[in-house]
Design a protein that fits this description.
Length: 131
């Protein structure tokens, strides 16, 4: 389906997201800081980035600024829950903003909706015709 970069410094959350998205058919790569995220983005063509804001080495806002020109959809996953934080994230260019704690089923639904909206979903139907 889609290649998703998970940028989350809390290992249990990162692993949980990775496992659940793989269960529904996505390929996921996990990193734990902003600099590692930028390195991965140089190596792979991602369909979506799930991005925490409070990260070591480089925060999520800085990562978003660096990838904005690459036309990769971004969903912020963060504990920063104030209205001003949510507005800032969306204004800076995030496609969605999810506050921790969140339900995995909602994250999956938002991922699928964003992939559909951005035509990044890779669902192909192959028909074979036999003569």
């Amino acid at each position: 389906m889609a290649l998703i970069l998970i940028v989350e410094d809390e290992m249990p959350i990162n692993v949980l997201i990775n496992r659940n998205l793989k269960l529904v058919g996505h390929e996921c790569i996990s990193v734990y800081d902003g600099e590692a995220a930028l390195e991965m983005i140089q190596k792979h063509t991602f369909d979506l980035i799930l991005l925490d804001i409070m990260l070591p080495k480089m925060n999520g806002y800085e990562v978003l600024e660096a990838v904005k020109k690459m036309n990769i959809p971004v969903i912020f996953l963060t504990s920063k829950s104030s209205l001003s934080d949510r507005v800032k994230g969306l204004t800076l260019g995030a496609d969605d903003y999810i506050v921790k704690p969140f339900e995995m089923v909602e994250l999956q639904a938002r991922v699928e909706a964003l992939l559909r909206r951005t035509n990044k979903a890779q669902n192909f139907l192959y028909l074979a015709m036999f003569v």
